[in-house]
Amino acid sequence: MSIQVIRDFSAKARADAELGAKLKACEKLRELMRLAREEGFEVDEESFYPPNEPQFTADQLSEKLVKALLRA
Q1: What CA–CA distance (Å, rounded) separates 38 from 66?
Q2: How far apart are CA 68 and CA 49, in angstroms?
Q3: 41, 61 in Cβ contact below 8 A?
Q4: Helix (H, G, I), strand (E, B), or coil: what is residue 29?
Q5: Helix, strand counts (H, E) of the chain
Q6: What SS3 class is residue 25?
Q7: Which region holds residue 43: left if phi is over 0, alpha if psi is between -120 and 50, else beta?
Q8: Count of alpha carbons within 13 Å of 44, Cβ hemisphere only?
Q9: Rounded-to-integer distance, Cα 53 and Cα 70, Å
Q10: Which of 5, 38, 56, 64 has its CA 20 to 30 A from that of 50?
């Protein structure tokens, strides 16, 4: 269930430029999770990591979060 919530949050951040900028400014996963919760999305940390598929694109995230979550 949380994967869909993350997917929905990611989609909202792509559609809302202000939210997208706030997401890009997050340097740590806890900041990203706090932002998601502020926007009404209940997420859990484990859902962000493999084996789950990434729900964000590199251009949505800070360099630190790209390295942590996308593992390109």
Answers
A1: 21
A2: 8
A3: no
A4: helix
A5: 4, 0
A6: helix
A7: beta
A8: 6
A9: 9
A10: 38
Amino acid at 53: E
For residues 26 and 22, give the distance between their C-alpha atoms in angstroms, rounded to a whole number.
7
pTM: 0.90
pLDDT digit string (tens) for the chain, length 72 residues: 589 999 999 999 999 999 999 999 999 999 999 999 999 999 999 999 878 889 999 999 999 999 999 875
Q: At which residue do the structure tokens 């989609």 appear?
A: 11
Task: Give the DSSP H or E segment for 45.
Answer: none
Contact assessment for residue 58 and residue 70, using Cβ atoms and an 8 Å cutoff: yes
Closest to 53 in 3D by CA, of 70, 39, 38:
70
